[in-house]
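ENTRY TYPE: paired fold submission
RECORD: A
CONTENT: sequence, then structure tokens
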Amino acid sequence: MSAVLTRPTLLESQPAADPCAHCDARPSSVCNAIGERDLSRLAALTQVVEAAPGHTFISEGEPASHFFNITRGTAKLFKLLPDGRRQITGFATAGHFLGLAVSDTYAFSAEALEPTRYCRFPRNKLRGLLRDFPAMEARLLEVASNELVAAQEQMLLLGRKTARERLASFLVTLYRHSAPCGRTRTRFPLPMTRGDIADYLGLTIETVSRTLTVLRKEGLIDIPGPGVLIIANAAALERVAGGLN
């Protein structure tokens, strides 16, 4: 399949539990609550979709008919303001489960930032599966709780931290989520634009660019090329994020 996708592509069905059993994101997603022998039941509900950069696969206000589990790539989550502007509320990577709506419509939109693969589950059918697998339902409650914590941290980020602390906090979060099962890495893709980062952090693009340059000169990070980030001193960056340096 071409690396550049022009429209969402529904991948052909695969035998039995194959799409779940061979999923790299499963260890860090809610799906790992289902045992190997029962994966075929989950796979039977699953549509595997690939979306090109720029494709919106969740639209705010549309009927919340599906859940989504990202297995590859990155998406930005955003809400629309009455004047048409977009406020980015977060970024979702492999293992993130999306679509937990408290109403009948989606509360946010999700757009692929790079070639992104996700599993799509019909909401009504997955609810039936959850009745038989309470462990997965418990994981979904954990996801909902984590979203509340993330919302509180975002309020702190925007309300109290300086521009330097905001950007450092953002980079630390990327670092911590750069690989599944806690195996962090120091070099990873940075698919979001400076504008996306600025929108998320409540800063201007110029402030983001200037602060990245400062952090680079201080030896905390490096940006060897477009879309690539290296964490050169994670401990020092965490101190900056916490207002200790």
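RECORD: B
CONTENT: sequence, then structure tokens
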Amino acid sequence: MCGRYAITTAPEAMRQLFGYLEQPNFPSRYNIAPTQPVPIVRLIQGKRQFALARWGLIPYWVKDPRNFAQLHVARSESVNDKPAFRNAMKRRRCLLPADGFYEWSEHGPKRPFFVRPVAAEPIAFAGLWETWMGPNGEEVESVAIITTPANRLLRTIAERMPAILPPSAFEMWLDCASVDAETAAAFLLPAPEELLEAYEVSTAVNRAANDGPELLMPMAASVAQEPTATPAKRSRKPKTDDRQTSLF
């Protein structure tokens, strides 16, 4: 389903891959969680733009976000039908840069796994963004990650995974003016099995305040493709990172 993910690629390398003009200097983050600001790439007046948006989409028609369960994921099968997503699918599609994501085993004990590209290169999640306007003129930009059914590799861990777009699809996905929502939805497919690898990591990732490279270290006895029912031993939790309340 993608409830946490990581960004570790250097800012300039990320800028070159996604082709935006801004030069943000953001640090590596190893445990990005819903409600935090996250980087997105969108098309504004024909140019790719880097921006920050709150992870947890607030539809424009919501009267009071405090009484609304913010949507951090959107199912690919219903993005063109659900009122919360269909307008954004038509007009406000975006990319979310990432280097990997976490999934928790849905079979037996709940154990975390880190999923990353075999090629150790950044990936892009398909996303939708919205701008919510408050009664006093306040604005909140928010985003949801689109998910698909899990591919064969990840199906042994969880039922769903983020929709990962190849670089060849970036332009059409972002171009809401020329590419309609139905056409764009054709890109929302489970990623090829050979693109990714998965391995078990420490349960320290369960706590959103933990944020450090040690979270990506594999558990010695983990075999992602064949999860067992044996609970993993708890490793010592790293020190709390006070930066976790803000991605940047």
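NOTES ON RECORD B: The CA atoms of residues 112 and 132 lie 33 Å apart. Confidence is low (pLDDT under 50) at residues 221-248.
STATUS: closed
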